[in-house]
Amino acid sequence: MRNVQRQLHRLLRLAALVTLALCVGACAGSRTVTYDTVDVIRAESEVPLHELLDVGILIFDPGVAESQDDPEDNVFPDVRRAEARYMPYHLKKTLETTGLWGSVWVFPERSEAVDLLIWGRIEHSDGLEVKLTVGAWDSTGKEWLNKTYKDRVPQKAYSKYRDRTVDPYQNMYNEIANDLLEVRRRLSAKELRTLRDVAELRFAADLVPSAFGDYLEKDDGIYEIRRLPAAEDPMVQRVRAVRDREYTFIDTLNEYYASLYYEMSSPYEDWRKMSREETLDYQELKRAARLRQLMGLAAILGAVAYEAEGGNNSAITTTGVIMGVQGIVAGFEKSAEAREHSESLRELGESFDSEAEPLVIEVEGQTRRLTGTAEQKYLEWRRLLHEIYSSETGFVTAGEAPEDAPPASVN
């Protein structure tokens, strides 16, 4: 009897050592997370109007393909497409609150009408952790920003008693705004004026390249001014009038984005809060499943080691193997439960994607109805801008050809 007890103790010690070795590897990444607050820098006094840059923020890249639906990693295309519209608008609001920028708009497509253009791609977002890659270029083509931002969100960020104007991901938005400001502060008043002049000339050259194309030169992606048109030039005045119409249309389009933003705010925050909880539960269940599987494996290894050391009690070996198998099975059951939690996130995200309502605008006394997505509306509007300028000046604008022009050749 004592011999059996000694053998059993030996088995337990071996199993404990194996379990300890495996668990050290599994738990090495565990640590306490501290949450820091990033405050956005605001203007201490009014910034002169001529030093304010107009900013365009493109709709973000969702970072997922239409077919990429992976509950295992909490990736749902419907949610990402909604976030790709929501995030740019909140960044717009963040920049506006600083008092350090001119007009800030969300654009569905690239535009030459702004001094600074911002682009972003959502790498990860599950309410607990967010990762966003952001790039920014001024009108001359110089890169201001190319950086990946990360944040881990504390539970208090979703408290019902918090300031609702502060987004759970606000640290990330504040950091982006501060980084942009750091670049802007290094520019002189003359350099800021140049950015505005280049933006105006690029818009004019895009509209009527035959008239304004030679005012700028481009070298290795960077634009420089060759010469400036006379301020009283009638064509310049017409281009400015068309540009003002562009701004008016973008204001209208941003009303749509604002409506979508405010309609999404509550359900999106609920989704992120629930997603955060589900993500933590999922991670905990995965850890529990892994631990049970490791313990089961340790029991089996302990039984094998017992026999290898000369143990001759088959009951002990059999018991160790059975316990090990049961541990592994229990681990798989926990993994299945974790998959059920991630599946609930899919259901939460199914209703997020929204299509734009038809937009009715008045152009030159005529009512035009733009349909389709915001992106399609903008492209149609750009076509109308060229049409307006052509009718006013007689110039053929970019992207158009005279009626008697020969057909384009087919390669």
Verbal overview:
This protein is of the alpha/beta class and 411 residues long. The protein has a domain at 49-244. It is built from eight helices and nine strands. The protein has helices at residues 2-27, 77-98, 170-185, 189-207, 209-212, 234-308, 314-349, 374-393, and strands spanning 55-58, 104-107, 116-125, 129-138, 143-152, 216-219, 222-225, 359-363, 366-370. The strands form three sheets. Strands 2-1-3-4-5 form a five-stranded mixed beta sheet. α2 (77-98) crosses α6 (234-308), α4 (189-207) packs across α6 (234-308) and α6 (234-308) packs antiparallel against α8. The longest helix is centred in the middle third of the chain and has 75 residues, at 234-308. It is globular, with a radius of gyration of 30 Å. The protein starts with a helix and ends in an 18-residue tail after the last helix. Residues 17-35, 341-346, 348-355 and 400-411 have low confidence and may be disordered.
